[in-house]
Structure formats: C-alpha cells, structure tokens
Amino acid sequence: MYDRGEAGHGASWAAAGMLAAAVETEPGEEPLLPLALESQRLWPDFARELEIASGVSVEYRDEGTLVVAINRDDAAKLRHSFEFQKGLGLDLTWLTAAEARQREPHLKPGIAAAVWSPRDHQVENRQLGRALALAARGAGVELVENCPVREIICAGGRATGVISERGRDMADIVVLAAGAWSREIGGIPPAHLPPVRPIKGQMLALQMDPSARLLRHVIWLPNGGYLVPRRDGRLIVGGTVEERGFDQRLTAGGLFALIEGAWRAVPAIEELPIAEMWVGFRPGSRDDAPMLGPSGVGRLAIATGHHRNGILLTPVSAAVLSTYILTGRLPEIARPFSPERFAVGDVRAPRPASAAGAR
C-alpha cells in the first residue's frame, strides 16, 4: 500500500469525524442514503474490531447530534429539512429552544429551535487513521509512506502494477484510493480517469478546558458549519466548501465565517484560544457521490469521490471493495456508485484473490 505522505494524513486527517447519515441528507441525495445508513450501522462493531486490532481508541462517541436554528428564518429552513428527512424515515426529533438548551446549556439564549438526531455520532478521525495503519501493519500489509505513485501500469486492457519513487511493483489487482489526487496518477486511459476534483475546506480547532467542556454533542449550524467536541478538550469548527483546486492557503474570510457562525450559536467560544488551523481537500465527484468498484480497466478498482462522507462511509467502502476484489462482484447496495456510471468500457472484473495479493 502506497501513500504520497504519512498514512492517514490526507483528507482523513483534515476531517471532523462526523457520522451524520441523517442530518446531512439533502434533497437529491436520497440514492446515497441506504449506503450511508448501512455504514452507520456497521460503525460500532467496526470501531471495536479496529481498537482490538490496533490497540488504539478511535473515540467512537454516541451522544448524538443537534442542528440549531438561531432565528425564525433559520427555524423555517430547519423545519423544511426536518420534514424532508422525517419523510425518509429518519429518527429525528424537533426540540424547542428550552429543550435544546437543556441538552446544551451554552447554546445562545433565545435560539429559535433545534433538531435532535440520536443516531448521528462521531469518531476521532486522526486516531482512526493511526489505528487503521497499525491494524494494517499488524495484518501483514506493507505500508510504503512518503512515496507517491507516479503511474499505474496498464497493458492489454488491464492494470498489472504501479510505478513509484521506489521503482516498479507488479500486482494482481490495483486499487486507486488517492482521494482528491486520483486524477494526478498517470497510466490510466483518459476515458477511465475518475472524475474527481479537490474541494477545499478550511477548519480550525479551539481549546476548551477538558474538565469543563462547553459542548457534549456535535452541533450543526445554520450556515452549514459545525462544532465537534473532542475528549481532549479540542473543539473542531468547520468547514468551508470552496472550489479552489489545491489552494492550501488559509484566508481571513474563510476563518471569519467559521468563527462568526460558531459564535452566533455558542457565544462562550470567544474566550477560547485557537489551537490549530488547517486546510483539507475533499474528493468530490461529478455527482457528489462516491465511486466504488470497477474502473473500466481490468483489475483496476476505484475507491474515491466520497466528498464530505469519507469517514462515515469507511466501513461500508472497505466491505464493498473487499467483496469486489475477492469475488469479482459488486454488492447490490454499491451498484449505483460504480465508477462505470461515468464511463462506458469493457470492464473486466478481477478474479478472486487473496487479501495478501491485493495492493
């Protein structure tokens, strides 16, 4: 397994770790909901198994999520989203302002309303990346870090290996899971390059007193931002959504929008020191849905395009790709997300292979 940097330090490192299948569902995204809910269902067991395999806590937390409305206009929009999501059968509860502040006393007095989502949880994404790397090594996987893959070797209509800075390595099956950088790797016929692009997100972390945290729940804000409290006292504030390519610069406007939106909901944050600021790049596809499975090139599988749902979809993506690699069949739940929806080609399913033979 190759990584252009340190394993787990790309979009996964920059994320907030929200597992928000319910409150993130918007009109037009109904086809993605079954996949998201299945991954949400898998998360508790996935977290436990990963912690046993790695010895690292991924801090899976099940306190739930609140979506808050600051004023009457926010409340009207929230009511619309609430009715839409309830119509999909999602487990959500409308809260009065008093009920919301009972759950989170540091919410601004006078907020209009909130929605409670008990099944939308969180995980510490940076610990998740560390745990996955340790578990993989423990299972015998060779992780080649700080070694970008320059080219996928394709011959006779199929992938046969990769060329990296350390040389040429042959493989029975190649899995392209390079996130927003997936189109930067050479060798793939242009017709089968995954249509993925970087979507810039600026984020920051404030430092709460770990013994007197301001928040317990994940909080979604009216401007589309969010607050994610960590056990070590960090409060993640995110995240902008920008079509800026691989622009790594933090901007005054982006950070101001994050802080101002958070302050409007939780005024007490103004006393908190800033612990960290960063930029990440979500891998966005043409239809903002993931690409999982056959690429159009034989023996080349794809796992990218997860946009803002990468952490949420981790368990189901692993299950889907494993099934495809070992059996040559894409599970029914993932068929709407085959990369083949973007390109028509002669796709050769991989023959069943051992896990040790897959890269």
Please provide a written account of the structure:
With 359 residues, the chain is an alpha+beta fold. The protein has a domain at 65-118. The protein is built from 7 helices and 16 strands. It has helices at 11-14, 33-54, 72-87, 97-103, 125-138, 252-265, 314-327, and strands spanning 18-19, 65-69, 93-96, 113-117, 121-122, 149-155, 158-164, 167-170, 174-176, 196-207, 218-220, 226-229, 234-238, 274-285, 291-294, 300-304. An 8-stranded mixed β-sheet has the order 3-4-2-11-12-13-10-14. A hairpin with a 4-residue loop joins strand 12 and strand 13. Helix 2 crosses helix 7.
Considering the chains and any ligands shown, give keywords for the structure.
globular, disordered C terminus, 359 residues, alpha+beta, 16 strands, 3-stranded antiparallel beta sheet, 7 helices
Mean of pLDDT? 94
The Rg value, from CA coordinates, equals: 21 Å
The poorly predicted ranges are 344-359
Order of helices and strands: HEHEHEHEEHEEEEEEEEHEEEH
Instruction: Kindly state the percentage of residues in helix.
Output: 25-40%
Helix segment count?
A: 7
- Major sheet: 8 strands, mixed
Strand content: 15-25%
Q: What is the fold's blueprint, element by element?
A:
Layout: H1 11-14, E1 18-19, H2 33-54, E2 65-69, H3 72-87, E3 93-96, H4 97-103, E4 113-117, E5 121-122, H5 125-138, E6 149-155, E7 158-164, E8 167-170, E9 174-176, E10 196-207, E11 218-220, E12 226-229, E13 234-238, H6 252-265, E14 274-285, E15 291-294, E16 300-304, H7 314-327
Parallel strand pairs: 2-11, 9-16
Antiparallel strand pairs: 1-5, 2-4, 3-4, 6-7, 7-8, 10-13, 10-14, 11-12, 12-13, 15-16
